[in-house]
């Protein structure tokens, strides 16, 4: 058990890391002491929050840390010079991703979701629910699925197809959303990949997945009686405006650090919105209390994601050190569409076994990097693996949340997703082949 005051201090350390990382990235001080100090704060918070982990998540974190440390120790034994590059990588351990993940989490403070008493029913209600959770989830992430699920549940339960609507709509946003941590992982592990290119490649695939789900919903015999979420289009004004602001700023400043731009704009929107509410009500406590509560309770509640990313950073540092010492390679001299397809299938197989996407990507990206892959092709592969991997695994956070919160069996969700996933996997493989053909990478 962790005392509330310890959680509060962990949250303050997390917030401090976000501020220091954001400052360093926006003002180009990556070689200064500030990001390193942010790394220290992150590891202090991680040490406190580790006790919150349970089950498979704790096992994955421990295994990644153990393997990463063992690999680094072996590499250091072979060549002490590796230490100069290994220790900053461990200390900073996916700091940019954590900065983005935690900054975007503040958006839940200003997301206004209209909760009418009357729940709509029928095909149009579920179509709007599907599109709503996709667009809203693209910005405020996991919170949207939980908020909408709570509203749709009857006696705390969701029907199978209500749960499938929420999980599919949410996970398909990983194909393109700049606010999804999947995009941060792709841009970080595929250096040189273009945000615009990944958006243009992912949006059509997400649209196909939404259409396929809607087509399946339409064929259900009891569709007329199924209830959806009372989504109002004004609810999407905030995420839509924020997404437009990110893309505009990225267009005006293409060399700017995209993860820092996303993080900074998300925090600015939260502060501006809360300040406006406080000013109109003449109660400035409305600005301070939500921020304080989120720092001391909301950020520590993200302990699972935080520790997974940090442990994956240690694992990646260990693999990088071994590759540096031994010159190990996969034995391939070219990374084209065929290799990307094999990589996607391998990542999906790992997800099926319960391996978190960030773990699979951290493990394989360091090995693939030695063949200088096309960054756009590699980034597309990583986004695809995340979006599909979430639906293919009974151990994913989305499926476990549906089971634990709404009583929908995770294995049942995976089984009813099988046909959908087979079609979507074929479409994703076809997209990789098409990109390879257009770029001459086959």
From TrEMBL:
Record bears the keyword Transmembrane helix? yes
Q: Which UniProt keywords apply?
A: Membrane, Transmembrane, Transmembrane helix
Q: Which domain of life is it from?
A: Bacteria
The residue ranges crossing the membrane are: 32-50, 59-77, 89-110, 130-149, 169-188, 195-215, 235-253, 258-279, 306-330, 342-371, 377-398, 419-438
Q: What's the name of the protein? A: Citrate transporter-like domain-containing protein
| Organism in which the protein naturally occurs | Terasakiispira papahanaumokuakeensis
